[in-house]
Amino acid sequence: MYDELKKLDELSRRKFMQYSAKAFLGVGLSSTLGNNLWASPTGPMPTAKSVIYIYLSGGMSHIDTFDPKPDWEDQGPVEAIGTNVPGIQVSEYLPGLAQRMDKLALIRSMTSTQGAHEPGTYFMHTGYAKRGTIRHPGLGAWLNSMSGKTNSTLPGNIRIGGSNNAPGGAGFLDSKFEPLHLGSPDKGLPYVKRHHSIDEIEMEERLQIAQMMDLSFHKKYPSKKVNAYGDVYAEAIKLMKSSDLEAFDLNKEPQSVRQSYGNSNFGKGCLLARRLVEHGVRFVEVTHGGWDTHNDNHEKLTELTNPLDQTVSALLDDLYYRGLLEETLVVIGTEFGRSPILDGNAGRNHHPKAFSCVLAGGGIQGGQVYGATDERGDSVAENSVTVPDFNATIAYALGLPIDKVVYSPSGRPFRVADKGQPITALF
Q1: pTM
Q2: What is the pLDDT of residue 33?
Q3: How far is CA 374 from CA 70, 80, 250, in A?
Q4: Residues 388-399: what's their mean pLDDT?
Q5: Does the pLDDT value for residue 215 go beyond 90?
Q6: What counts of helices (H) and strands (E) characterise the chain?
Q7: Distance CA 367, CA 406 (A)
Q8: Per-residue pLDDT reduced to its tens digit, 245-290
Q9: Average pLDDT value for the chain
Q10: Can you give the pLDDT at residue 197?
């Protein structure tokens, strides 16, 4: 038994010890053994191993969701409801999350300097305002660059939904840290099977011929970007032969679990995200779009919040009962809030001055509210949190060295979250 255990890699040994401890002692070892296995050598002790980042594209109305203002005349028809944490209220659109408030930390004092969608989304994903030709890395790229993958076969950074060219990619880091984009969560990973007319021997022969033909080119142009193409091919072949491909197959889930997440693309995306982090993917972003409610704000929000509430509630429960919530940081982010005043089309306009984001799991203490807005939800009244602060908090949970300076190819210095400081009170 001991000889077999020695043959396992470090992560597999850790999992074996965790399962044994739970079976024989009724305890888990993650708090004493696990965290340092995925830590950055120069960062703080991590509280999270992986991230599921839920991005609400378009700008979520904070006063109609996580920061209701029942006494404000333009609050509209939505009412505030109590949660399972006394003294904390959320919108009636979120009854499921209201009953899971003990797992959530609401940040009601977010503020941004970017009031348009594209620069706001870029800022939220990178912690930097977009300037010139420099492309800043997203958190998934920083994580895999600084801390590495925990599954050598699967990509460490995956994006589900949204645009393939959305910000938050590898930026100036190596292209291997670029997120793998999946347009549809229930179609699996495309183009990973050999054509039926080609057997494995012929496949190997073709690869060898391709390598020989590329050899002179690689010698003549030995750059990182050129070598990255070879790395991509090698990683793709390894993945083609791996049993980890099952992680992308939602049909492996019981029907009851799939129903709990809902039948929307967003629901399927979050279920896939859970499967991926369960298989060792470090960073998964799931996009839920449509939050740009300039017209008929409340009517649209009833359609948008229903899958949000059902799916995130199911995700939190699923992670919790699988023992994954303590090591998975769940993030709900958006580029800005919406104006407290309703316009002539019963809509709300862009409002970067004050908005809300949410964190759960991954060492975050649930059942709390950080910061506050004024009586209308117009301005931050207490404990302002900038976008770089928010990103620094995520990086801090992952054990990344937020003060470490990394130089771009042009020689310019950058940090994971610029000058942002983590909100340590949330942990």
Answers
A1: 0.84
A2: 37
A3: 12, 16, 44
A4: 98
A5: no
A6: 11, 17
A7: 36
A8: 899 999 999 999 999 999 999 999 999 999 999 999 999 999 999 9
A9: 87
A10: 72
Q: Are 252 and 303 in contact (CB under 8 A)?
A: no
Give the Cα separation of 416 and 173 in Å (integer).
Answer: 12
Tell me the three state secondary structure of residue 302. helix
Fold for domain 48-188+249-426? Alkaline Phosphatase, subunit A (3.40.720)
For the chain, the domains span 1-38, 48-188+249-426, 189-244
Residue partners of 88: CB distance under 8 A and separation at least 6: 82, 101, 106, 367, 369
The torsion angle over the Cα atoms of residues 388, 389, 391 and 394, rounded to 10 degrees, is 170
More confident residue, 221 or 374: 374
Q: How far apart are CA 421 and CA 396, in angstroms?
A: 9
- Is the pLDDT score of 356 beyond 60? yes
Give CA–CA dist 102/119, Å, rounded: 33
What's the distance, Cα to Cα, between the start and end of the chain in Å? Answer: 39
Which pLDDT value is given to residue 25? 39
CA distance 64 to 60: 8
Residue 255's CB is within 10 A of a number of other CB atoms, namely 8
Residues 6 or more apart whose CB falls under 8 angstroms from that of 409 comprise 172
Partner residues linked to 284 by β-bridges: 52, 158
27 pLDDT higher than 50: no
Pick from 274, 269, 264, 283: nearest CA to 321: 274
